[in-house]
Amino acid sequence: MTVVFKWLLRLAGGLVALAVVAGFGVYYLASRSLPDYDQSVQVSGLAGETEIIRDSSNVPHIFAGADDDVYFGLGFVHAQDRLWQMTMMRRTAQGRLSELFGETTLGIDTFVRRLDIYRLAQSSLEAQDDYAKRALSAYSAGVNARLAQINADALGRGAPEMFLFKTPIAPWRPTDSLAIIKLMGLQLSGHLEEEVLRARTSLSLEDQARLSDILPDHPGAGIAVLPEYTELFPTITPHSYAALPSGTKHRLSPFPARGFAGASNAWAAAPNRSASGGTLLANDPHLGFAAPSIWYLARLELQTGGVIGGTIPGMPVVLTGRSARLGWGLTTAYVDDQDVYIEQLNPDNPTQYRTPDGFASFESRASIINVKDRDPITVQLSWTENGPVLPPSQYSLGLVTPPGHVAAVNWTVLSGQDTSLSAALRITRTSSVADAIAAAEDYVAPAQNLTLVDLETIAMKTIGHVPRRDARHQSQGRIPSAGWIKENRWDGRMPYVSNPEFVSPVSGILGNTNNKTVERPFPNHVSFVWGDSQRVRRWQGLMQSREVHTRDSFMGAQLDTVSFTARSLLPLIGADLWFTGEAAPDGTPERKRQIALNLLAGWNGEMDEHLPEPLLYATWLRALQERLIRDDLGPLADEYTHVEPLFIERVFRNIDGASAWCDVRQSAPQETCQEMARFALDDALLWIEERWGDNFETLRWGDAHQATHDHPVLGEVPGLRAIVNIRQSTSGGDNTLLRGLTKGTDPNPYHSVHGAGYRGVYDFADPDSSVFVISTGQSGHMLSRHYDDMAQLWRRGEYVPMSLDVELARAASVGTTRLIPQR
Questions:
Q1: How many CB atoms lie within 10 A of CB 130?
Q2: Mean pLDDT confidence for 285-290
Q3: In terms of DSSP bridges, do strands 458-463 and 358-361 run parallel, antiparallel, or are they unpaired?
Q4: Are 232 and 199 in contact (CB under 8 A)?
Q5: How many angstroms separate the Cα of 683 from the Cα of each of 370, 483, 569, 600?
Q6: What whole-number distance in Å separates Cα of residue 101 and Cα of residue 113?
Q7: pLDDT of 403
Q8: Are the C-beta atoms of 672 and 576 separated by less than 8 Å?
Q9: 195-223 b/e with 16+ CB inside 10 Å = b?
Q10: What is the Cα–Cα distance from 76 to 463, expressed in whole angstroms?
């Protein structure tokens, strides 16, 4: 027995030793790809020596004698720090994810191939100006120089993830960068899904007057009455459809769920509204959270001067940032740049579709998708004059497409002459607001509000192509329309001069929170769907609360957590519940309700992570909307994952009879809105008890509202998730300026999944006092100390310096890389 025990002990010891050795082996292989920031590298494709100084936050400052070499350096540092991220975005744009992930990503690849964005990026290359072509070529050469170094020095395949997915890395090409721009366009566009949802909701509602309640127009002048969807397509009936699989609901999908199609904040102050006497600009673009962040900070020393700010790996341009004389920021403009068309097939020849001039043949070709662990599949791509034909599963298009028809989409992103990069590069080389506005004329998509400041002037201009629609368009682009009717089709684009523009306002303050910017009658309307009706109210109050602003007051506005929505809706829905009735015994539903109401009654609407009230409020509003819409919409209610404040307000103020939503149609009694508010509060408290306990005073909003910066591929792998995912307790919410958009779906509906991955505040009285930060860190390598070193700064609302002073960068650098031309 003793001998057996000894051998078992030896075996266990051996296994432990093997595990330790294996662990060290894995660590060694993974650590081989950690970049050395302090070295000299001989590279091909470079005209002159390029110096890259990494400051204390690992932000590269790139210096060279020519702009082409600076872009070469940017490509090199992007590939050093974010190679895996870049290759994944390229694969997504090419429709080649399934080569790595098998059938799980086949829906994504199929849809991307149907949109044909990579081929459109290829054709757009020739449309770029000469400067952009050189920048693209130089950037690609820089990426490829890093790939050559990885191969020559056996640097762990460039990223730890590459060991798990052993496929060769193709050289970077200029087309890859243009395709990533289009990929960002997919992530920032949401009108297609809004059109389909409006059509589906129209089919579900018995009373069409209620459509404007659940999908309300933002406050302002009204529009012409639209037809019901069944009037446009009589063969569709409310009961003729069933649920369809989406096919693209995957962590790697570039197609956002409703409400996640991009957002942002930006505001500016003129010198007369600035305490320092210089212009001020703040910008925080909102995208889905991930580890690493989509944003990468960099400084480029161009021949026109230094620029510093936020870049996206794969793209050779500073998208938001500043130079010595100009600052620029971006917010999603919500331009209605997508229209869904229902195309009628020729009943005698399904390879043809109906046009205003008769039947025409689809433009078709086959595309082969290679799929891991199974045979390749062939997808037949078809285009109409209105755009590509889409699969019925995408955005549930099949539910609104009559028999004998298919759905197609027209979309400004789908341009084969897309000069957006050329325009973006020109903006970074200008030094005045007027020149920057002129430089942006060739920008195509995705449409953005460009907020600008120079040393004296502030401005905001909507950039991007705005479709020209006929005033007789049947649905005004709000729901899918018949593609064969000429009046429904686009007629080119609106002139750039007609895009909204605000220069030097008398107030000295301007800004955008994705709110409605103009009120114009169709077809000059810009959009019917906007990204915000709430944050802008709080922003207005903050801007008007003081005569002059400072860099710190702009930072405070970016970090503001007070919910205008909570302040306006709670008194409305709780009007008949506050402090009513006698004190109830402990433990009873009535007592729990009283405790919750007492907490909310004394709350100022601040969505602070340490408070219980935000969780009580958010859960109550979510339960209330669910009770109001479920009986009318049935399963379609699942699509309304976030509370629509304008809907709640319409219902409780009974605007145009909207209180009808409070009555449960299937029940005999007629429920009042006050009863629904009480029922919903009880639902909310029960939900909270099941997850967090019944001691409401000790609840913490931050426990539920965790920012989830998850690795898109490894974030669900047991063991690795603890290493690669970054989770943080955070303040803010759906409708606060410090926006942390919640997931909206179970099991963790209040996880914060979308918000400001980049924050920047620029003060042109003292430009080098400007600051910025990103939500994770500069490196995409999980073993790097720069993987998450900015994450806690970001969570705490802190920033790092945004200086163009080279000596300041040198003083605390983490390394200097010299790229030397190979002779």
A1: 8
A2: 97
A3: unpaired
A4: no
A5: 48, 45, 18, 16
A6: 17
A7: 95
A8: no
A9: bbbbbbbbbbbeebebbbbbbbbbeeeee
A10: 30
